[in-house]
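Take a look at this chain, tokens included, and explain the fold to me:
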Amino acid sequence: MRSGAAPTCPRGDRASRQQWSSRCSPFGTSPPSSCSARLAPKPFCTICPPEPLVELQLDFKDVVQGDPLVSAKQAHAVEVFDAVEVGTSLWLMGEPSASSTAETVFGPLLTLLERIGLPERVRFDRDPRFLGSTSLRDFPTPFLRFWYALGVQPVVNPPHRPDLNAFVERLHGTIEREYRQRLLPGSLEAPCASLPLFQHQYNTERPHQGRSCGHRPPAVAHPQLPVRPRLPARVDPDRWLAV
């Protein structure tokens, strides 16, 4: 192969091709480029979840669906921006919005972090509101720089791996079955009024089968959370350069 040329997949058996793919994958065994290396998923174990307030999982969930034949954008008429705490399965944040963008995600997160403090890491998928359209190779998005500036490790899941966001995905299944399909909210006003009540029931009344809850509601199984570092008064916006 010429020096500097792109690697070419070898013509061999399946094992050889898989080994080559692993070496060339941004999440493979060889060190990926600068930003991807910092964001490669950490080993994850659902059998032994971390201690409380160590890891948050973030994602969006449709609660009011529009007509995708009218506009692909309108297919997500109202979404809820959710945060689940992995060590306790607590549903810490459920923010309904009819216009979630890369700019609007910061307000609810700051409110949450002021309340619970800073986790060690935060895990999310490759939603454009988190990662934009960048390749993550050179310059991280504002969402990633936000976490770096706070000293929190962002972990980006690879494509097609919802199992790595298992705690928030499980919450979304519950929201779908026990909230959206029953109440059928039709506008933003409906989830703004009823979703906080459902969130309270989920945390304090509904038995949870997660290992850390033992068939008890998350807030009953974990009545007290540890004290985490507070939001700093000032941050270094270029801290990501040293990560």
About this structure: Strands lie at 55-65, 76-85, 91-97, 121-124, 153-156.
